[in-house]
């Protein structure tokens, strides 16, 4: 157990996982015979080998074996990269070289738009069999202007707020799930005010880092950095500047932040030291918290998220057009992202489904997590997924602009080498340089 | 200092006449404890980070926050090592590192010996300028040609394969220079002349006389090339994918896993250090001799 | 490097060989004699032209184009990429960082290495043991070194700050402030290379003619005096050699700063972003090979320039006042 916990702890980023969430699920029955799978035999008896490139944990190991059993003429090999960033670089490289890409390539939502710039490099995956399979906003993000679909959704990262019930209690604040959700409130102002109230009777910082909080806030803005036509508006958009000021005022002026860089070693170590009382947690973050905070009791998860719902991360399966077996690859991608299969992946590695049918399933609703005080994490995250109302537009420059913004916030919150204004100026310069 | 061929040669090794000047201070006076104190402190500083790596790697992620922190190794090293091996393609990376290092060590020795032999012992037009050219290339940061080199590799479809790492490292200017220096003083010209008079072909002469004489220097060159390639990061990092890494590239994946569990990361660092550390136990003495021999000024 | 002159010219055959065979054998023989040398040296030159020289010049070609990593060569843009780089504060910051890290690593390294070499250059016991001991860090791969040291230099829970704390010194922001981060990175470089350079200096010291010291002793010079007025001047060529080799490598430093934090970009404010990291970021993260090539070319010229300065200094030193 110890070992498997720690393995999981490395498998972060969006698709990784809330495996703990899945642990309590019973293994899926073998009741589901899938009809799309049969169509795989349309390739005749020709022996083919398909490669699937994923990163972190998609939970596909058993599914791929199952697919091979259903389609005896097909051999499937999985190539796993350790991180999403690495997968991104590798995909860029093989698209540039026009060779070397796998038949199926997994893509993370934050850099999906970047690859949408090269529609010729990917096969159009539009198909009747996948109509209405996913949450609308999930499909929308992978759809090109001409209606072509370049990716099938796998998982999503609906966000809730994780909190330390023991620290809440010590500060004389309601620490049960409902009470905490109410205390945290509905808007970002509520959330920050709650922080001030909490810190009035506690020495522990309210949240871990301004950068992580920023992620939650900016993922609720429709066109934060770019217009739909790709025009960069990041530096003029008043909403961006207001959000920037809001998060930094809360983090620095009101000192609600623990001033930790997310994913830094200090951040990791802080889980053991009562480093902070709350943090925003997409489903895949639960496994991270459990790993980092091993031995710490008191973590719980509140069914709320400031400013409405929010999504952080999630992936797609794409089929690069350079492959030799595009049709067969498309069928496999279709089969893998079908609700039945996604639920098995969820059971295996906790990748939270983006498929409507899977979200409504009883299995999901029944999932609980012992580390988070036996919270009904399946139900909570499904609620959170439903609460997502805004699909942020992420154009080709989203990734670099957001990186520049994360740096800008880090300079003020963590490094404290700049104040909000001077750091903003550097951000503007960085964005201008992208032009 | 990253990928630079760490040239240990200042000027020629001079077997035979390079006898160091007789020790001053004479054999009678032994230095006192201050000397050993300084040396001991430096040695401790050299070894401590490696111990630290093992120390943290043998506990768990929380060890650093414990108060007081333990200074003896915990019992988790093998568990952590197993996790590392599961997380990154460790065996493949080790194998790859070995293949790349051994291949380049071999080819560098072959090509450098051939060229060194020609430069030191054969007559041909343009020899002087060509040798100067070789030496000059040692000062050229060819690493900066990464972009086109990368473009070439992807045109050839070599990105992601070990070929892309091996080919640019088949032979180095440093190797040629080193062998030239050595051959110049190690082989008497009369020997070559005699072989030629006997009617031996050039390659035969090289084979029987050049190669035999070159052995000690060739072994040293192989050793340095092996270590150099094994520890190299920049180019393999760029051109190899996550699928097919060398050891340093795989090690980088551990940290880049976007999440830092330092007991795992340092267990990985320890694992990656072990092979060369073991090698060092066997050849450390020769390595020291090689560096010092190469450094003796003429 | 006047080494070529020391290669003794092969004795010119004073007794012309009698042709032993005629015809093919003879022709082959002559051909063999004439072309074999070129054949032997050709692998190096072919390889160097393909993987060294050609890419360097092609870099210049790429640098004057729009060049997306996926779409390939775009339009000719002239000096635009260079203008962009030279007007970007990131470039100048990276340049500053590169030099700062380089100085922080090479200067103390040379001083410590010479001092330790002098310590080793005594009649100590277990010579081989100590010499091997100082060389151990050389076999640790830089990536591992960087991982270990970035842990030691962690801001909140790092050993170094803990130690400073016991002396009542406030924790240093190793991953936040410019100079401390350079210091930490330079420490990694020094860790790996000081021992190596100790051995080089040690070898050089052992080659210093003994009579110089004897003369000094007669003049009544103490050990420190001897060290500074004999050993150090005699080591000058070796010092220059060490500095030159470390310049070429040091200005291209990548591994250590890359691994200093989990993002590898050189800090949120570019505190420790070096030129090679900047090049990598432009080329492989932002996908702009044109700009990356411009940086490569600028860095290349910088290194060549420094090489020429080095060379000039070396010549001056070796021609003036060298009494050997």
UniProtKB/TrEMBL annotation, chain A:
InterPro entries: Bact_solute-bd_prot1, SBP. Keywords: Signal. The keyword Signal applies. It holds the Pfam family SBP_bac_8. Residues 1-29 form the signal peptide. This is Cellobiose-binding protein. The lineage of its organism: Bacteria, Bacillati, Actinomycetota, Actinomycetes, Micrococcales.
């Amino acid at each position: 157990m110890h070992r498997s916990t720690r393995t999981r702890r490395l498998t972060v980023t969006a698709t990784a996982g809330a495996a703990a969430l899945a642990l309590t699920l019973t293994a899926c029955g073998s009741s589901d015979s899938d009809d799309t799978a049969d169509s795989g035999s349309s390739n005749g008896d020709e022996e083919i080998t398909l490669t699937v490139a994923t990163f972190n944990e998609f939970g596909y190991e058993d599914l791929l074996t199952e697919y091979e059993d259903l389609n005896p003429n097909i051999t499937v090999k999985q190539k796993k990269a350790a991180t999403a960033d690495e997968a991104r670089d590798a995909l860029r490289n093989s698209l540039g070289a026009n060779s070397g890409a796998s038949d199926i390539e997994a893509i993370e939502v934050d850099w999906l738009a970047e690859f949408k710039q090269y529609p010729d490099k990917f096969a159009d995956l539009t198909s009747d069999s996948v109509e209405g399979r996913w949450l609308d906003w999930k499909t929308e993000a992978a759809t090109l202007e001409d209606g072509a679909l370049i990716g099938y959704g796998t998982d999503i990262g609906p966000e809730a707020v994780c909190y330390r019930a023991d620290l809440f209690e010590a500060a004389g604040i309601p620490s049960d799930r409902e009470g905490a959700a109410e205390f945290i409130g509905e808007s970002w102002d509520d959330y920050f005010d709650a922080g001030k109230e909490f810190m009035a009777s506690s020495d522990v910082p309210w949240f871990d880092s301004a950068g992580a909080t920023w992620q939650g806030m900016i993922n609720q803005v429709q066109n934060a950095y770019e217009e739909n036509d790709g025009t960069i508006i990041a530096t003029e958009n008043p909403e961006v500047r207001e959000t920037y000021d809001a998060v930094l005022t809360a983090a620095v002026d009101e000192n609600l932040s623990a001033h930790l860089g997310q994913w830094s070693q200090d951040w990791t170590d802080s889980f053991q030291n009562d480093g902070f009382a709350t943090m925003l947690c997409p489903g895949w973050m639960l496994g991270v918290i459990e790993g980092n905070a091993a031995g710490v009791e008191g973590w719980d998860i509140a069914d709320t998220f400031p400013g409405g719902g929010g999504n952080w991360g999630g992936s797609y399966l794409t089929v690069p057009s350079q492959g030799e077996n595009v049709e067969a690859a498309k069928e496999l991608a279709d089969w893998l992202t079908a609700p039945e299969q996604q639920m098995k992946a969820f059971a295996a590695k906790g990748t939270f489904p983006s498929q409507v049918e899977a979200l409504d399933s009883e299995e999901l609703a029944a999932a609980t997590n012992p580390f988070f005080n036996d919270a009904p994490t399946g139900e909570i995250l499904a609620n959170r997924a439903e609460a997502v109302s805004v699909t942020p537009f992420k154009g080709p420059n989203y990734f670099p602009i957001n990186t520049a913004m994360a740096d800008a916030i880090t300079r003020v919150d963590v490094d404290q080498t700049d104040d909000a204004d001077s750091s903003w100026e550097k951000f503007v310069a960085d964005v201008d340089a992208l032009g | 200092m990253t990928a630079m061929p760490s040239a240990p040669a200042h000027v020629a090794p001079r077997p035979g006449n390079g006898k160091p000047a007789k020790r001053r201070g004479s054999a009678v006076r032994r230095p006192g404890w201050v000397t050993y104190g300084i040396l001991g402190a430096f040695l401790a500083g050299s070894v401590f980070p490696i111990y630290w790596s093992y120390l943290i790697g043998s506990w768990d992620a929380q060890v650093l926050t414990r108060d007081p922190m333990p200074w003896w190794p915990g019992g988790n090293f093998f568990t952590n090592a197993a996790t590392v091996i599961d997380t990154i393609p460790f065996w493949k990376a080790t194998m790859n590192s070995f293949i790349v290092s051994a291949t380049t060590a071999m080819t560098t020795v072959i090509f450098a010996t051939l060229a060194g032999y020609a430069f030191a012992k054969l007559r041909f037009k343009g020899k002087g300028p060509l040798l100067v050219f070789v030496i000059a290339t040692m000062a050229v940061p060819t690493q900066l040609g990464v972009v086109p080199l990368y473009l070439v590799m992807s045109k050839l479809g070599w990105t992601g394969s070990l070929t892309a790492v091996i080919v640019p490292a088949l032979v180095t200017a440093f190797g040629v220079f080193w062998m030239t220096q050595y051959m110049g003083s190690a082989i008497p010209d009369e020997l070559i002349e005699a072989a030629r008079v006997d009617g031996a072909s050039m390659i035969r002469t090289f084979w029987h006389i050049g190669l035999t004489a070159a052995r000690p220097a060739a072994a040293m060159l192989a050793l340095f090339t092996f270590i150099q390639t094994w520890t190299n990061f920049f180019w393999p990092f760029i051109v190899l994918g996550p699928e097919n890494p060398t050891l340093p590239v795989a090690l980088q994946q551990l940290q880049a896993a976007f999440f830092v569990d330092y007991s795992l990361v340092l267990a990985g660092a320890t694992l990656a250090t072990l092979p060369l550390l073991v090698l060092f136990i066997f050849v450390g003495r020769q390595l020291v001799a090689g560096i010092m021999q190469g450094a003796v000024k003429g | 490097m006047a080494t070529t002159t020391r290669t003794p010219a092969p004795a010119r055959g004073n007794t012309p060989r009698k042709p032993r065979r005629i015809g093919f054998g003879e022709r082959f023989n002559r051909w063999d004699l004439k072309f074999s040398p070129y054949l032997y040296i050709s692998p190096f030159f072919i390889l160097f032209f393909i993987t060294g020289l050609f890419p360097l010049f092609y870099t210049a070609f790429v640098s004057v184009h729009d060049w997306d990593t996926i779409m390939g060569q775009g339009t000719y843009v002239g000096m635009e990429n260079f203008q962009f780089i030279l007007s970007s504060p990131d470039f100048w910051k990276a340049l500053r960082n590169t030099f700062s890290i380089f100085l922080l690593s090479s200067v103390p390294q040379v001083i410590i290495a010479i001092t330790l070499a002098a310590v080793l250059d005594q009649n100590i016991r277990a010579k081989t043991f100590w010499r091997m001991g100082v060389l151990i860090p050389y076999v640790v791969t830089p990536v591992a070194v960087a991982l270990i040291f970035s842990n030691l230099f962690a801001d909140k829970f790092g050993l170094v700050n803990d130690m400073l704390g016991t002396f009542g010194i406030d924790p240093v922001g190793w991953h936040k402030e410019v100079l401390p981060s350079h210091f930490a990175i330079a420490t990694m470089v020094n860790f790996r290379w000081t021992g190596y350079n100790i051995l080089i200096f040690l070898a050089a010291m052992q080659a210093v003619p003994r009579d110089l010291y004897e003369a000094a002793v007669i003049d009544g010079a103490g050990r420190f005096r001897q060290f500074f007025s004999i050993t150090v001047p005699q080591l000058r060529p070796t010092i220059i050699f060490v500095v030159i080799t470390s310049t070429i490598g040091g200005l291209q430093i990548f591994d250590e700063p890359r691994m200093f934090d989990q993002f590898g970009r050189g800090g949120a404010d570019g505190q420790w972003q070096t030129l090679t990291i900047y090049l990598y970021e432009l080329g492989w993260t932002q996908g702009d090979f044109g700009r990356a090539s411009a940086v490569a070319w600028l860095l290349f010229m910088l290194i060549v320039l420094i090489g020429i300065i080095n060379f000039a200094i070396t010549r001056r030193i070796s021609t003036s006042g060298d009494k050997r």
